[in-house]
# Entry
Amino acid sequence: MIQHIIAYIDIFLWIALAIPTAYLFVFSIASLKKSPETKAVKSDKNRFAVIFPVYASDEVIKDSVKRFFLQDYDRALFDVIVISDHLSKDTDEALISYGARVINAAYENSSKAKALILASQSLDRNAYDAAVILDVDNTVDNNFLTSVNNRLNCGFSAIQTHRTAKNNNTEIAVLDGISEEINNSIFRRGHINIGISSALIGSGMIFNYAWFADNIQRADSAGEDKELELMLLRQNIYIDYAEDIYVYDEKTSDTTNFYNQRRRWIAAQFYLLSGALSSLPSAFTTANWSYIDKVCQWMLPPRLIMLGGIFIMTILSSVYSLQLSYKWILLSLMQITLFSIAIPACKRSIVLSKAITKVPSLFILTVKNIFRLKGAGKKFIRTEHISNEDKG
# Structure
């Protein structure tokens, strides 16, 4: 009797982990294909509102804004707007001296969504063609706006650029950067290669300005990027992925920040999933495959849970019964293969092998996060940033 119960539990767990593994495997294979070429359909010089929502990160934002003004794009065609929430007066004055427009905010309960809403309400919607959303620590190449302008001229209304790590100062930062590149391979390049919208990621996002100004008003969670993504997909607006346009992002350097960041992401995802499910029937009737895929994507367990769960079950089944272990070994091999494909060759280094030692502790933190999601879907959980001078 006990053996039958164990066998049923084993099958249930295997199916529960095999389905999301198969999903990731399919899109990792799709990421091997060369991304589709895009051709310009117009030759406009677009006007950009470059928006930095900032909360209490004085030194970091000064560096990011100063660097952004090195763009080779016509200076008359872009404005840098900083939503200054709990920044010092000296920082505001420094940003203005660089050429930025500063909009002050002092929310009792701050959030990125509130900052973006304030930006849209404070700016002339007729003054811009596109909104560029960047995080406080983001830096870009000097040809960033020129490249984005060319991409917009291909007819896209929503674009996710290639966000990548700019620091590898700790093992946690290395793993965070690798996780980002896995997401880029599977949820962005792999998706657009088969004609499905790219996932958004919170920064390095470009939107048609009129669309952004109208739709950001409805964002109210800690996952404003996911809310905007749902709005785009419900309206059947395709999200492009510009792999060759880079945004350099500071990765979390310690377990506390990693824990808080993932808690916010997971909570926001589950908070929005319930609302997304309600529109699923209509998505099927209209063959809105990008929307259907997004709902499926949000139902996936966190990757660290999958990684740890499959590893543990492979070990346990091998000890308990060799016959039960075969399917788990196959699943482990599939998981290793998909991650090997999704991780760029430049990241497969001795640094990665050292960083892998942190995976068990991060697995435990992720499991812990699952039991601490209440209220986090709408709560502002800050990620600490360090200045470039402190990174070493």
Remarks:
- Residues 387-392 have pLDDT under 50 and may be disordered.
- The first helix runs from residue 2 to 30.
- The domain at 48-276 is CATH 3.90.550.10 (Spore Coat Polysaccharide Biosynthesis Protein SpsA; Chain A).
